[in-house]
Specification:
The structure holds two protein chains of two kinds.
Chain A (H helix, E strand, L loop, with lengths): L9 H26 L3 H16 L3 E4 L2 E3 L4 H8 L1 H19 L7 H26 L4 H30 L6 H33 L12 H5 L6 H24 L4 H70 L1
Antiparallel strand pairs in A: 1-2
Chain B lengths: L18 H4 L2 H17 L5 H18 L3 H8 L3 H13 L4 E4 L2 E4 H27 L2 H10 L4 H30 L11 H27 L16 H22 L1
Helix pairs in contact in B: 2-6, 2-7, 2-10, 3-6, 3-10, 5-6, 7-8, 8-9
The chains are: A mainly alpha, B mainly alpha.
Chain lengths: 326, 255
């Protein structure tokens, strides 16, 4: 996900950089209000934690490993503003020192990996939390689902940026289908890992978890009725269902790698003369319907990402203000 | 990626005395950023311009004395995107050429070249920057470039504690392995995740202890600034020749 320099057009780089800078400024201010003079050491050490957590390799299947991304985890543990700040710092340091992600790509990398995951994850967390029992199990479940969704949102955000600033003539549908498809799988892993990490923190220091502040100490003590195993299986099933629905939607246009390869490889070279103009006209209409569909997919994905991220920002600033008044 | 051999952050810097090492950090930061921006806005068809950028970048790598082997090893972070770039010609639309019986999109080939050369140039600059500048100097440079001090302070704490936490993680892992922990499948993931959770709690508590230690030393919420000398004007002029040459090449190519 760490896009390098020149991956998207300069215009997208500039617009996303401005957006990220503005939100980063707000995050610095909000985090300062929430943490006071503890801001520098706590945010710094938390950023080091996210960086270190990304280095932990988890087994997936024999020989394959994956790692945590941590955007939604940071939001649930530290609150959306501090979480966004912390993950942004990680992204900036990775670009500046580790050549991981381009310097001119910092705008969209920060947006996709820190802002969308933290606020999208937080909004999802708040929504799911309402459906969960008011126990630490509920916090863990909502956090895990939010983490899975946040990864998919991040992929959707990247695809939308691709629509505006593609550096290659790859159709939006293809990018969206591939990105979201792959990230549904990554999201399942992220959900499982986030849930497990959260449950470990909830077991020892639930008072540290900002996302659990709504619970009273009695509710924290209460034994969760849902065990870890059924929950993990349930969330994996939910993720697969969501993934299948999304991929059906994305792939309902006749696209995907295979299809394009066939188009490019055979249709064009072999049938050019035989069908002449009729094929051409066919192709044109196919192109148009493709375009409307891809615009529809882009529109819906855009609305979903914006709603969730915007909702996260609004609820985050509202809860910050409420805390201040108390 | 393990912290076993030397630390994660301090390992980036390659001690040396080259001309690149001696440039003031703020000047180096601006020059690196300028070169990457010029590269990023150059139209992909200007192959001649890109060749000049690449040759110039390699000259800088050679001047810095960090060694090409080390440079190439660190360049490997862009491999995932190189792989993606190699796929582009196969999945792109538009006119195509036949190469050994396989149709490759011409537009896609250009896009592949675009991603490869720009990502390579950007990563090269970033590698030169972090290999020739000690982290502390880099942070001073950021401060002198008016990056908000709060942000620089958070970054400096992060860099300070990455190695501590990675080391802590290593200790936890070693003690798990010593007790027979050898996970291969996803359902054996719980102990590792629990250790990551424990690491968060420990990190947070460490942050609180650090804060108290800072308070004990008179911290008031503002990080003290170190008195440091600004880079002289002639240094700016000399170093900026590099991005200026790149910009000149871009102008020549476009006009």
């Amino acid at each position: 996900m760490h896009a390098p320099d020149g991956f998207l057009q300069p215009s997208v780089a500039v617009v996303t950089a401005i957006l990220s800078l503005v939100l980063l400024t707000f995050a610095l201010r909000h985090a300062g209000r929430e943490l006071g003079d503890r801001q520098v050491p706590l945010a710094g050490v938390a950023a080091a934690f996210i960086f270190a957590a990304q280095m932990v390799n988890f087994p997936v299947a024999a020989g394959t490993t994956g790692h945590l991304l941590g955007g939604a985890l940071a939001a649930v543990l530290l609150g959306p503003w501090v979480g966004m700040l912390v993950v942004s710092v990680v992204v900036i340091v990775q670009a500046l020192l580790f050549a991981d992600g381009g310097l001119t790509a910092l705008g969209y990398n920060t947006l996709n990996m820190a802002i969308v995951t933290a606020f999208g994850g937080w909004a999802t967390y708040l929504a799911v939390r309402k459906l969960m029992p008011r126990t630490s199990g509920g916090v863990v479940g909502a956090g895990a689902l939010a983490a899975g969704v946040s990864v998919v949102l991040s992929a959707a955000a990247f695809s939308i940026e691709w629509l505006f600033g593609a550096s290659a003539p790859v159709a939006f549908d293809t990018v969206f289908g591939a990105m979201v498809g792959v990230h549904v799988l990554i999201g399942i892993g992220e959900a499982v890992l986030t849930g497990l990490v959260l449950s470990a923190v909830m077991a020892s220091r639930p008072d540290l978890v900002v996302g659990a502040r709504h619970l009273t100490s009695d509710e924290l003590q209460a034994k969760s009725r849902v065990g870890m195993r059924p929950f993990l299986i349930g969330s994996a099933v939910a993720a697969v269902v969501v993934g299948v629905v999304i991929s059906q939607f994305a792939a309902s246009s006749p696209d995907g790698l295979e299809r394009v390869a066939i188009d490019q490889g055979f249709a064009e070279s072999a049938n050019d003369h035989a069908f002449g103009s009729s094929l051409f006209s066919d192709y044109a209409t196919a192109g148009v319907s493709n375009e409307t569909l891809s615009l529809a997919v882009a529109g819906i994905a855009g609305i979903a990402v914006t709603l969730l991220v915007g909702g996260g920002v609004v609820s985050a600033s509202r809860s910050a203000r409420r805390r201040q008044m108390v | 990626m393990s912290g076993a051999h030397g630390s994660t952050v301090t390992r980036l810097y390659v001690a040396g005395n080259s001309r690149i090492h001696c440039i003031s950090p703020e000047v180096k930061l601006v020059a690196v950023f300028a070169v990457v921006v010029v590269g990023a806005v150059t139209p992909r068809t200007e192959v001649a311009a890109f060749s000049v950028y690449v040759v110039a970048a390699w000259i800088v790598v050679a001047m810095s004395g960090i060694g090409f082997a080390r440079y190439l090893r660190r360049l490997s972070v862009i491999v995932p995107f190189v792989l993606f770039a190699l796929v582009i010609p196969f999945i792109s639309g538009g006119e195509s050429v036949n190469v050994a019986g396989i149709a490759l999109s011409i537009d896609g080939l250009w896009a592949m070249w675009n991603v490869l050369v720009k990502a390579g140039l950007g990563a090269t600059m970033s590698i030169v920057l972090s290999s020739t500048t000690p982290v502390a100097d880099l942070l001073h440079g950021l401060t002198r470039l008016r990056v908000p001090r709060l942000l620089v302070a958070i970054i400096s704490f992060m860099l300070r504690y990455i190695d501590v936490l990675v080391e802590q993680l290593g200790r936890m892992r070693r003690s798990m392995v010593a007790r027979g922990h050898d996970p291969r499948w996803l359902w054996q993931v719980k102990p590792i995740a629990s250790s990551a959770g424990a690491l968060f709690v420990r990190s947070y508590e460490r942050g609180e202890r650090v804060h108290q230690a800072m308070l004990a030393r008179g911290y008031t919420g503002v990080m003290p600034t170190m008195a440091s000398q600004r880079a002289p004007l002639n240094e700016w002029v000399v170093v900026m020749v590099y991005p200026a040459v790149c910009l000149g090449v871009l102008m020549l190519a476009v006009v």
